[in-house]
Amino acid sequence: MDLEDAFTVVDTPVYLSGQSDDALVRQVQQRKEFSPPRAALSPATGLEEGIFLRPLEALHWLTYVTRPRYQDDVLDRYLWWGLLRYLGFFTHDYSHSRLPKLAVSDAGHRIAGNQRRVTSEEMGIAFGAALAARWFDDTSTATLRTVVDIDVALDARFVFGSSAAVEHIGTRRPDYLLIGGDRRDRSRCVLRVLECKGTKNPGNAVPQLARAVGQLDGVTVGGRAPRGLATSMVTGESRTSYLALDTEDEDDEPSYEVTAETIDRVKSFRFESDRVDVSAAEITSASIRASWATLADFGGNLEAIQLWAPEVMQNRMQRRPRERVTFETPVGTARGTSLVFGFGRERLTVRYGIAARVDEQLTGGSAGAVMEAQQEFADQLQEWRDSERPPASREVYSATADGTVFSLTHGDRG
Questions:
Q1: How distant, in Å, are the alpha carbons of 142, 153, 309, 365, 378 from that of 369?
Q2: Which of 140, 261, 308, 369 has the most crowded Cβ, counting Cβ within 10 A?
Q3: Per-residue model confidence as pLDDT tens digits over 387-399
């Protein structure tokens, strides 16, 4: 697969097969790995039979939510290695439909051993986050803003050594917090959780999902387990698909007020080793702080990382200054870092950016101003998504509602 073909694959909408139904619920409940969650297990609304998406969206989520796990001495290699590998990992399958399905390419099939295991796990994260975004928006009064890695940002149960390994020293819980902005009241947020798995063997998907479901209520907020989504992504030899289930509480889903004052008060927040339940006000505001630090890290804004990262996160995520660039996108001006890959006569430029207005306010230090800038960008992004999209060009974009902009540009080497 050459660069132009790979570029086309990641930017073309494809059909990703999936299953989320009562039959899957029964399969999971019969597995020995299954541990019943507190809330009822049910099919995930909006994910019942598959979704349409651009693979670029999943790659964007992967680079965003996993980035804080990588220490500075390996971050550049991770960005190069991951993108070069995953850009050519998929191809189109037209064998059963005029609309393309997503399949593993010949290049992807040649990945073997431990690298294949890592690939499956990271595809589980990439597509798990993309699936969570669809599910969240279809089932909530809020719009998904971002995904926060609990272990890196907030959890004192995890210890990061000099080799960047992570040692688990407490109970099981989901990997990610999902933060949504309430559409009815912009001062309030909704919290959910996500546990996502990945495998190349379809036979492993149901056992994986059973384990994932058991982790969804590993943390409670204000005495209740947040609604959660469990996914298992299969990137197998013959098919690419997902399984998904959620935990739906019969009570109305709460939203929690977030103000500049509450965000300023929680810089020292962390999950302690003997603490499972946390106050709603604390975890919501601390999650917002952590999400801003993750956002700043994505765009290389070192000053903002130091300003907003909770102490437990700041102690684990050391960064050196990187050259930043300003670039134009369909959703406005962005600022961030840039990488250039050369392939013979071809060149691929990858940019990891933050919407310029959001980036400016992250550096300014006012929590209220950051929230306003993010809301403005979310509104602008929705208008862009609702508008008529131009045909694919040599420059393609993906963006998230909290302000990240991920772009790929394909051109000739000068």
A1: 20, 22, 17, 8, 14
A2: 308
A3: 766 555 678 899 9
